[in-house]
Amino acid sequence: MKMIDLTRAVLVPKESKLEWDMRRLGWTRRRLLRWYREHAGTILASHERQLRVRETVKALLPECRIVTREMADAARLDGASVVIALGGDNHFVYLSHFLTRAPILGVNADRKRSHGGLLRFDERHLAGLARRLRAGRFTISEWPRLEASVDGRLAGVATSELFLGERQRKHMSRHVLRVGRGPAEEHKSSGLLVCTPAGSTGWYGHYGPRFSAASGPARWALTEPFPRGRRLSLGKGRLRAGQVLRVRSLNDADGVLDVDSLKDVPFHFGQVASIRVSEHPLRVIGMEGL
Question: pLDDT value at position 241?
């Protein structure tokens, strides 16, 4: 039985759209609701649902330290006993970038408006979730992540996916791919996606089926390869632990390597990206049967 010191737990709630717009625009609630027009009712209802879930979590786990999303980078989250990500998938992925050791628990703040493909729990599970945390009745799974470097310099670690291509996808992306010591293959496309099982629930789903870690920690796929119908050996593939996918950029406009849609690293003509499965998986809390 694994026990969690809840005095060292951290709750990081995401702002609702209404809260975020009020802060970034400096507008009053009344002005925003007028500006939302026909969407005002939907946005306000979502805001109220998120506040109720937030207050419920705080009441059930009063020991937790509360950190705003904006302060996550300075909050030393990796020293927490558990990080509770209260929001949606993007919030969960964002917070994962601050973690190498601490486990993360994803809670969907508004299941009516948020897809929550990566989130195991929502307002229906809160009381049971708190009881099981206190009793140590949970599991910790290790979710694969991807590590990318450009010309030998670390570019980032992705929980969901990496995108390599031109910053503006109207421009043709050109790359040369090679896996390990295998043959190289030159490609033209609108970009290259490399994703984890977590990422297969999103963008990658347009190019390949959702997959689990049991069938391999990572896969890649060209998006809109050109010319259409050309037979490619490396247009899609599986990246296994210990393998390295090397991508040489032939981009001639503004090439980038994007990490989880959170960070862009320049990836210009002649540069080489090396992508592998990270040695630091994301530790995710689960509770069977809840």
Answer: 94
Pick the closest to residue 137 from 146, 145, 128 (CA basis).
128
Q: Judge if pTM exceeds 0.85.
A: yes
> What is 146-280's CATH topology?
Tumour Suppressor Smad4 (2.60.200)
Q: List every span in the chain annotated with CATH 3.40.50.
A: 6-137
State mean pLDDT over 35-52: 97
Which residues make Cβ contacts (< 8 Å) with residue 252, sequence separation at least 6?
174, 269
Cα separation, 117 vs 283, whole angstroms: 17
- What is the rounded distance in angstroms from the CA atom of residue 162 to the CA atom of residue 154? 13
Angle between helices 17-25 and 40-60 (to 10 degrees): 100
Please check whether the domain covering 6-137 is classified as CATH 3.40.50.
yes
Please give the mean pLDDT across all residues of the chain: 95
Residue 82 CB contacts under 8 Å (≥ 6 apart), including other chains? 4, 9, 10, 102, 103, 104, 105, 133, 285
The pLDDT of 37-41, averaged and rounded, is 97
The token duo for 182 is 């295998």
